[in-house]
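Tokens in:
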């Protein structure tokens, strides 16, 4: 047998194992509300090749071998346990098992590592929480996709309605079409039909009421059977408490803004300050995509090295608030063609750091350049540290943060030398550290942080909504603190 034959035989063997994983993952997901992860990446509803690629990527960033042959025993061990709703990372189980050294079997180790989700410790399934989307643009449609994808996974969120201004012609048909097909993020995974008579979009069996209104104070959501819902405002039309309070109509319990909040509206970056949200807080903001990209790594660096000052420069994809061709715009430069120019503009991300990370006293400045790409941006974070370090130390530290810290869902890590922006379309992390671009010289560090400013940010919004809904299930093994 040739070397190539050996490689192909090995591939087919791993394909077979990955194929056998799918029904196990699906059954845990449907029957026990268990979301199986691999180094923070969900394996639910993934194909054979996707499962293998996820293992490959985890192996790359961890710097050591990880194969389905290693994780499969842990997945099988989960099927023998009386599990409650939870998220279980089989990549972390395999990694921690390697270094355990107590001679436990896979079954014994797994039972101990996920004990908080079993038997008398397990939490009960919670009733679903209604969600309403106010606005149905780029972020609104991606949040809709995520909510539909997660329906029935145990997170307890149920998309009940979208509120939009009625357009001319076949409004609901056109909105359903935009949800079905996306030039950047591809086809919707599932089926979408339209009930024009009742103003409903049905996506993977989820009936979504389309409510037409241009004034939030005129909508009574209880008329549609909606109760104590979380309303996600992705229009950005209102940013302060007074404006956002207009949404607190019958049927709405909380309002979440997908833009930086003004005044006393809390700016929440999941993974960093979501635990500070008061239970009785009814209005909050998820800050901006760039704030979500820089605050988690900034916190990680401040925790380990201390930060005296910093500057962030974002090279940002163009957005809908720019003109396709030169035309009048309220902002001087944003009126120039987004598709033909690099456009210097402002970013509020640096000033928003103080709200999300108040314990950081270091001054952070920022600026932005919009460039002719439709999605994925990069933040260049230049930091003056409290102590000197080396590039190797910083990269090892950030790699470990991305794998085994409470920030592992926010921070990703890549060492591929040829990575470019389009490689990160669809990333579910708030930011991705580019190892090859990282610069460290004594007490100066420059981090290059990729982020999908549409999808990655939408994932952060969903995490905040899960948290304030009380339906964010714990992850096992618990990340190191």
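Residues out:
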């Amino acid at each position: 047998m040739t070397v190539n034959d050996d490689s192909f035989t090995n591939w087919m063997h791993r394909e077979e194992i990955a194929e056998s994983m799918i029904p196990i993952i699906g059954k845990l997901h449907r029957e026990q509300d268990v979301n199986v992860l691999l180094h923070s990446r969900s394996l639910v509803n993934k194909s054979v090749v996707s499962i293998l690629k996820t293992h490959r990527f985890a192996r790359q960033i961890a710097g050591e071998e990880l194969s389905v042959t290693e994780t499969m025993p842990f997945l099988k061990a989960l099927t023998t346990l009386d599990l409650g709703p939870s998220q279980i990372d089989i990549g972390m189980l395999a990694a921690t098992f390697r270094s355990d050294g107590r001679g436990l079997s896979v079954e014994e180790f797994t039972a101990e590592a996920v004990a908080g989700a079993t038997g008398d410790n397990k939490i009960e399934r919670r009733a679903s929480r209604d969600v309403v989307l106010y606005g149905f643009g780029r972020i609104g449609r991606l949040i809709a996709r995520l909510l539909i994808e997660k329906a029935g996974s145990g997170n307890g969120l149920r998309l009940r309605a979208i509120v939009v201004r009625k357009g001319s012609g076949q409004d609901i048909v056109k909105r359903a079409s935009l949800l079905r097909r996306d030039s950047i993020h591809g086809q919707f995974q599932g089926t979408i039909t339209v009930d024009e008579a009742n103003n409903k979009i049905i996506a993977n069996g989820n009936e979504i009421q389309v409510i037409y209104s241009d004034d939030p104070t005129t909508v009574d959501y209880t008329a549609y059977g909606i109760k104590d819902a979380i309303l996600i405002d992705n229009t950005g039309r209102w940013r302060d408490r007074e404006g956002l309070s207009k949404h607190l109509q019958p049927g709405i319990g909380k309002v979440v803004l997908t833009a930086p909040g003004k005044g006393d509206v809390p700016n929440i970056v999941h993974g960093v300050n979501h635990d500070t949200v008061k239970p009785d807080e009814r209005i909050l903001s998820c800050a901006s995509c760039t704030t979500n990209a820089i605050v988690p790594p900034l916190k990680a660096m401040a925790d380990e090295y201390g930060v005296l000052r910093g500057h962030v420069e974002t090279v940002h994809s163009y957005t809908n608030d720019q003109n396709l061709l030169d035309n009048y715009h309220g902002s001087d430069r944003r009126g120039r063609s987004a598709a033909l120019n690099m456009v210097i503009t402002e970013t509020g991300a640096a000033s928003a750091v103080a709200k999300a990370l108040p314990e950081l006293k270091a001054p952070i400045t920022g600026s932005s350049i919009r460039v002719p790409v439709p999605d994925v941006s990069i933040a260049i974070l230049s930091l003056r540290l409290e102590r000197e370090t080396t590039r190797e130390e910083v990269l090892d530290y950030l790699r470990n943060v991305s794998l085994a810290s409470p920030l592992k869902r926010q921070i990703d890590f890549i060492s591929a030398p040829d990575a470019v922006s389009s490689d990160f379309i669809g990333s579910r992390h708030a930011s991705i550290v580019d190892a090859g671009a990282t610069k460290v010289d004594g007490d100066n560090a420059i981090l290059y942080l990729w982020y999908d400013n549409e999808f990655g940010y939408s994932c952060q919004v969903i995490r905040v909504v899960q948290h304030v809904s009380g339906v964010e299930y714990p992850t096992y093994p618990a990340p190191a603190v």
